[in-house]
Write a structure and sequence with these properties.
Blueprint: H1 2-14, H2 16-29, H3 39-55, H4 59-67, H5 69-93, H6 98-109, H7 116-122, H8 127-153, H9 161-186, H10 192-254, H11 259-270, H12 274-284, H13 292-319
Helix pairs in contact: 1-10, 2-10, 2-13, 3-9, 3-10, 3-12, 4-8, 5-6, 5-8, 5-10, 5-11, 6-8, 6-12, 6-13, 7-8, 7-11, 7-13, 8-9, 8-11, 10-11, 10-13, 12-13
Length: 320
């Protein structure tokens, strides 16, 4: 039984984008499937995702923040400058309606995604740098995300910066901290590595549940407004994500990073914690239900695009 679960966990981690997309499609056909993933339940599910991240972090991962300050500072600045600015630009270029604009801006203001570490590993990037960037952006998120939303979206809607700060603290920092504590305390126990091996599958399953919950929420609106709404929103998400990869690579080139670090900063900047954005949109912009749509599309697309980019990097290695 345990071996089957471990095999399933590995499969889900390797096919995360396929699984999340499949859940989204099935939920669109059967909208009541994930209607229960709302409010507190959605927040708890995101907390579980962040807990799984914490369970994989060690004290050495945090030491990277002190050992490689220039790398981490460069990555953090790129993360919280490029993605919010690109989101702000796209919102005005595409002339998005307020609800969709809020969703794109929120994705841009969130920290790096958890699965970016896996993508960096797959494409022979600098995994230690990737983990350090994820840690740094996650730790900064309670302060940076509300402030950036105030700057970029304050003209659209009143931003509850204090409430957002507390919410991010509760659903990210605390679960990650608990996971790190458990890892530090029980990592030498024989059963602990087995528990860790199940975490990737659990994380992907939880992300799929969040996406399914969003599809259930916006299903009627999508049906009423047709394919145009989805296609237009996807176009913005695609541009946002792609420009993040491209500009992240450009920052690495300007900083004279080696190939592995350039790949990592590209992936870290382009892939956002869209699961966090989804929960924040549902909590703070409930009056604008469509704000969760760009977040949900980003959840699925960032996993797909990250896999594609990692594959392109590997193809480049083979040609060389």
């Amino acid at each position: 039984m345990l071996q089957s679960l471990q095999t399933l966990s590995r499969w889900l981690a390797a096919h995360a984008s396929l699984f999340v997309t499949a859940v989204a499609v099935v939920t669109f056909l059967v909208p009541g499937l994930f209607v229960w993933v709302r409010g507190t339940t959605q927040t708890v599910i995101l907390g579980i995702i962040m807990l799984t991240m914490g369970l994989t972090l060690t004290t050495n991962d945090f030491r990277i923040l002190g050992k490689r300050p220039w790398d981490i500072l460069t990555g953090a600045c790129a993360q919280f400058l490029i993605m919010p600015c690109v989101a702000y630009l796209l919102v005005h270029v595409f002339r998005l309606e307020p609800a969709l604009a809020l969703g794109i801006l929120l994705v841009g203001c969130c920290p790096g995604g958890v699965s970016s570490n896996i993508m960096s590993y797959l494409c022979h990037g600098d995994v230690a740098f990737s983990v350090g960037m994820t840690c740094a952006s996650t730790l900064l998120a309670p302060v940076m995300t509300p402030l950036l939303m105030q700057f970029t979206a304050g003209e659209i809607i009143e931003i509850d910066t204090i409430g957002m700060f507390l919410n991010i603290l509760i659903v990210t920092i605390i679960p990650v901290g608990i996971g790190c504590f458990l890892n530090y305390t029980y990592s030498k126990r024989p059963a602990f590595p087995t528990i860790q091996s199940l975490m990737p599958g659990l994380s992907v399953t939880c992300l799929a549940c969040i996406v399914g919950g969003v599809v259930s929420t916006v299903h009627d609106t999508l049906v009423a407004r047709g394919l145009v709404l989805f296609a237009w929103t996807f176009a913005v998400v695609f541009c946002h994500n792609s420009l993040g990869y491209l500009l992240g690579w450009a920052v690495g080139w300007m900083a004279k990073f080696n190939k592995a670090k350039k790949r990592t900063i590209s992936i870290e900047v382009g892939m956002q914690n869209a699961g966090l954005a989804t929960v924040l949109a549902s909590t703070f912009f409930a009056a604008q239900p469509l704000s969760v749509l760009p977040c949900a599309i980003s959840c699925a697309w960032h996993s797909i695009s990250g896999t594609i980019l990692a594959g392109l990097f590997l193809k480049a290695d083979k040609k060389e």
